[in-house]
Structures are given as C-alpha cells and as structure tokens.
Inverse folding.
C-alpha cells in the first residue's frame, strides 16, 4: 500500500509541474517571444548596418567628383583645397566636415566657412570672407575688418586704398584684445561716417588717430580735424560747413577744432600759411 501511495504522489507532482509550466508559458510566453523577436531584430539591424556602412565606404557611387565654391573674392579654390586636403576620389561618407571647415578657416581671408556634402558625389563650400575696412599699425601693418579684428598682415600684393588707424600699439593689443578691437571699431565707424559726407572722395581721409582726447582725422592734404569724443554726425556736418566757407574765401585750414566740450557748437580754425610764407619768400 505504501508503494501505491508513493506512485500516486509522483503522478500528482508531475501533474502539478505540468500545470505550473503551462501556466508560466501562458503568462510569460508572449513577453518571452517578443523579447526573442526583438533580440533577433536588433542583431539583424546591427549586422545590416555594419554591412551597409561597409558598402557605403567602398562603393564607387560615393566618390567625390566635384567641389564648388561660393563667396570667394580674395581666397582661391586651389588655396582652400590645398589647406583642407580635399581631393577628387575621396569617399563622401568618410569626410570629416568639421575638420575640413577648420582647415579652410586658417586661410587669412576666410572669416567663416560651411562645407556641405551632396550625395552621391559632390561637395559645396560656402565662404564668408573678411571685408577690409582700415589698416592698423601693430608693429607691422594689418588689415582690419568691420569688427576691428586685425585678420591679416598687409602684403605687397594687397592693393587697397584704406585709411590708417593709429594710436594703438602691439603691446596694447596683446594686453587687451577686446578693448583694442572696440577702439578700432569706433575709429572705423568714424571713418565710414566721414566717407559718407564725401561721396565723390574729393577730400579723402588718410588717417584716424586715436588720442587721449578722442579722435583726430587726418586728411590726404595733411589737414587735421580734432574730433574729440561723441556727436560724430553733428561734428561732421559742422566740418562740411566750415570747409565750404573756407573754400568760398579762398582759404585753407591746417587744423580744425571740433572738440570743445564746454561749447560743443563752437569751431576753432588754424589757417594754413600761404605758400610763399611757408617757403620763406616775401610777397
């Protein structure tokens, strides 16, 4: 009888185990199947991605055939290609766009550069160049852009007719670049304002000299205009009226003072000596 009870117990245990397994499959089966499918799909995608990348990097379809440039005035395509190492036959997928932009940006005329890939086989390069606005004296002569940045040392081949900005030396620039650029920007703004009053370039501006009292304009004929600080437009209007009056009287000025802070509307003029007097001759 004991043997029969043991046999029945084993049958009951087996039935319970089967029922437990069936319940577990019924409860967890869908989730387990989903996990298996997702794992298989992930493996397939990874493998597919690896194979796709291998094909893209080796396919002749994506070999560079043409590079186009826009925005060039001073820099040349050849110079930028040489700096970047970009050549026909390189794979577009393998190009490091950021590295290409950084390399081309080392050209002295280049202010900003944007490289774009156009699949399957071309690249475009959009360049924003520095626009020279004046010359700065920092030991050597440097080209200054509109923001007052000295972006390039003046070379013999740089044929530019630009006003000179003086009064800042190299030590000043090294000590505080931001402050120096701001002063340069102010000087360039005054130069532009003056040029706007001389549309025919009849009396060209030669130099903007920055001094403790403000700014001094030096015209091509050597005449100095002491501008002081502030009210640039109003002062330039007074300057135009004074010069017109002097011309009408057949006179010329050596120095015109517009920097009187106590009486802003006042203008003082130091007349030029007659030619005969300057040469020491009697009339």
């Amino acid at each position: 009888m004991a043997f029969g009870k043991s046999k029945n117990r084993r049958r009951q245990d087996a039935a319970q185990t089967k029922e437990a397994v069936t319940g577990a499959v019924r409860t967890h089966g869908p989730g387990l199947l989903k996990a298996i499918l997702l794992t298989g799909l992930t493996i397939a995608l990874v493998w597919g991605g690896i194979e796709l990348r291998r094909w893209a990097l080796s396919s002749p379809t994506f070999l560079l055939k043409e590079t186009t440039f826009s925005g060039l005035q001073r820099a040349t395509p050849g110079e930028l290609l040489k700096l970047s190492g970009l050549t026909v036959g390189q794979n577009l997928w393998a190009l490091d766009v950021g590295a290409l932009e950084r390399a081309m940006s080392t050209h002295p005329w280049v202010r900003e550069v944007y490289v774009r890939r156009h699949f399957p086989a071309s690249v475009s390069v959009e360049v924003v160049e520095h626009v020279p606005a004046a010359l700065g004296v920092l030991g050597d002569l440097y080209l200054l852009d509109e923001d007052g940045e000295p972006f390039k040392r003046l070379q013999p081949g740089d044929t530019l007719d630009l006003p000179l900005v003086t009064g800042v030396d190299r030590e000043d620039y090294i000590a505080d670049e931001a402050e120096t650029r701001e002063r340069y920007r102010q000087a360039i703004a005054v130069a532009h304002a003056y040029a706007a009053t001389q549309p025919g370039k009849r009396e060209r501006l030669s130099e903007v000299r920055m001094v403790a009292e403000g700014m001094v304009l030096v015209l091509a004929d050597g005449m100095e205009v002491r501008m002081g600080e502030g009210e640039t437009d109003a002062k330039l209007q007074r300057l135009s009226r004074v010069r017109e009056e002097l011309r009408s009287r057949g006179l010329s000025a050596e120095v015109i003072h517009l920097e009187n802070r106590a009486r802003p509307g006042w203008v003082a003029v130091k007349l030029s000596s007659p030619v005969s007097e300057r040469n020491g001759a009697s009339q």
The domain at 61-129 is CATH 3.10.20.310 (Ubiquitin-like (UB roll)). The first strand starts at residue 66 and ends at 70.
